[in-house]
């Protein structure tokens, strides 16, 4: 930081607070709310921030966000758009504008969706005649006063576009896209009507043959081996051994089984919060670790079982083993995401953040003027009564009396992840730009109140 001080006459440069190692050297464990990252010197823009992160030693993701493998969060409707908004490589419901829309509409779409390559049709809808396309290059040179300029004046016209016929095969479409050196390939009907668009999707994590990466969770019981066989047949890349206490003979036995039958298959597991737990799982050939116990918004393990650790500390020290860390739990805000990633977590798992989006399986209900969705912990009494998988996960399938380690609650509507996840990504990019080099400061209770949301009425 001293290298960037403006005043050349300054002789004394005070040391700015604590490094991450100094912060967590305290005997007291910390939550994400117990500290802040100090701002640094900005000499780059958000476009220069790279969010690529390791899920395992061999698998990289283009964004460090994972949806939780909980029944109330991730089923097919959540998993598919989290991979990418494609059908056979084509976006079939893209954002579409008309020539009479303005440059400001394109910029707003970029804020919400994270991209600005938008097809322009006569009516601004799919199935209408394609008349052009607007990309970042078309709008980047315009000043703020030009935001009212009509798209008809700045778009790349249809005569200059490379298109593919409707029904084109994915391989052929990829070849056309690569030869054209364009970022977008519209597919049109015989009447030049837009039916789909193919794009180089910026945050889709794929294999070398362009197959999207996909993972699935399994347990440690005998019938999970059959589930694993079925998952490998459909081409998943990685599995998460999903257990409340990962450092167990059951999980280690399951890792050994997977590695013996599918030696090239990537396995992550947990959860764990101590160095001894981490070492047990790494020695068993685990390629990624889930960190967190009793710290999520609907988990009460720390109170009921007297086990766990505050998530800030848990997610920080396990990076010393060199294995990618999944911060699982206590991620309630973008700030929590940034703190987890800044303190060596490779990815963050989102449960409550996604639990009230349109794609989760629960139904909306209306209460006190707001739309809500029910959100229940996998170890809540409600979940265990409905699903045997919840009982198995917490080793309670044979017990007559169920001990709840979670609760049921409600969360306010967050809309679709098609808008919410791009918002999260953009927010993390901006936070990374603000922080610069990593220096931290502990926060008192009053400081947490000062920095939190204020009631202004």
UniProtKB/TrEMBL annotation:
Residues 82-149 form the CBS domain. PANTHER family: IMP DEHYDROGENASE_GMP REDUCTASE DOMAIN-CONTAINING PROTEIN (PTHR11911:SF127), INOSINE-5-MONOPHOSPHATE DEHYDROGENASE RELATED (PTHR11911). It is an enzyme of class 1 (oxidoreductase). Pathway: Purine metabolism; XMP biosynthesis via de novo pathway; XMP from IMP: step 1/1. Catalyzes the conversion of inosine 5'-phosphate (IMP) to xanthosine 5'-phosphate (XMP), the first committed and rate-limiting step in the de novo synthesis of guanine nucleotides, and therefore plays an important role in the regulation of cell growth. Could also have a single-stranded nucleic acid-binding activity and could play a role in RNA and/or DNA metabolism. It may also have a role in the development of malignancy and the growth progression of some tumors. Keywords: CBS domain, GMP biosynthesis, Metal-binding, NAD, Oxidoreductase, Potassium, Purine biosynthesis. K(+) binds at residues 294, 299. This is IMP dehydrogenase. NAD(+) binds at residues 242-244, 292-294. One of its GO terms (cellular component) is cytoplasm. Its cofactor is K(+). It comes from Rhinopithecus roxellana (Golden snub-nosed monkey). GO terms for molecular function: IMP dehydrogenase activity; metal ion binding. One of its GO terms (biological process) is GTP biosynthetic process. Its EC number is 1.1.1.205. It catalyses: IMP + NAD(+) + H2O = XMP + NADH + H(+).
């Amino acid at each position: 930081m001293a290298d960037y001080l403006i005043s050349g006459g300054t002789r004394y440069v005070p040391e700015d607070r604590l490094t991450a190692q100094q912060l967590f050297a305290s005997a007291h464990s910390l939550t994400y709310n117990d500290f802040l990252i100090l701002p640094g010197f900005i000499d780059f823009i958000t476009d220069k921030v790279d969010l690529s992160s390791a899920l395992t030693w061999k698998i990289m993701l283009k964004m460090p966000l994972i949806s939780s493998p909980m029944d109330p969060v991730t089923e097919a409707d959540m998993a598919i758009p989290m991979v990418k908004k494609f059908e056979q490589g084509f976006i079939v419901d893209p954002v579409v504008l008309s020539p009479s829309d303005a440059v400001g509409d394109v910029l707003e779409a970029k804020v919400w969706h994270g991209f600005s390559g938008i097809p322009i049709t006569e009516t601004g809808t799919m199935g209408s005649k394609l008349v052009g396309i607007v990309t970042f290059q078309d709008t980047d040179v315009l000043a703020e006063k030009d935001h009212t300029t009509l798209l008809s004046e700045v778009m790349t016209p249809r005569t200059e576009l490379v298109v593919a016929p409707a029904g084109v095969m994915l391989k052929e479409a990829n070849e056309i896209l690569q030869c054209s050196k364009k970022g977008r390939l519209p597919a049109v009907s015989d009447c030049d009507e837009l039916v789909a668009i193919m794009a180089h999707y910026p945050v889709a994590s794929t294999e070398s043959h362009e197959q999207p990466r996909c993972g699935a969770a399994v347990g440690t019981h005998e019938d999970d081996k059959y589930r694993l066989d079925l998952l490998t047949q459909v081409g998943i890349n990685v599995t998460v051994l999903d257990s409340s206490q990962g450092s167990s003979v059951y999980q280690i036995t399951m890792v050994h089984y997977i590695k013996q039958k599918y030696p090239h298959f990537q396995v992550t597991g947990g959860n764990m919060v101590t160095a001894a737990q981490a070492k047990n799982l790494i020695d068993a050939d685990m390629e990624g670790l889930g960190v967190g116990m009793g710290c999520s918004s609907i988990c009460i393990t720390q109170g009921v079982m007297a086990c766990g650790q505050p998530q800030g500390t848990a997610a920080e020290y396990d990076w010393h083993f060199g294995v990618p860390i999944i911060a699982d739990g206590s991620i309630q805000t973008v700030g929590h995401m940034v703190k987890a990633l800044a303190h060596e977590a490779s990815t963050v798992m989102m449960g409550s953040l996604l639990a009230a989006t349109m794609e989760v399986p629960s139904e909306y209900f209306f209460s006190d003027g707001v739309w809500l969705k029910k959100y229940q912990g996998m170890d809540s009494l409600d979940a265990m009564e409905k699903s045997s998988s919840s009982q198995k996960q917490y080793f309670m399938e044979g017990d007559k009396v169920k001990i709840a380690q979670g609760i049921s609650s409600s969360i306010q509507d967050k809309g679709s992840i098609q808008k919410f996840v791009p918002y999260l990504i953009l927010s993390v990019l901006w936070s990374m730009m603000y922080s610069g080099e990593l220096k931290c400061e502990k926060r008192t209770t009053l400081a947490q109140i000062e920095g939190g949301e204020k009631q202004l009425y």
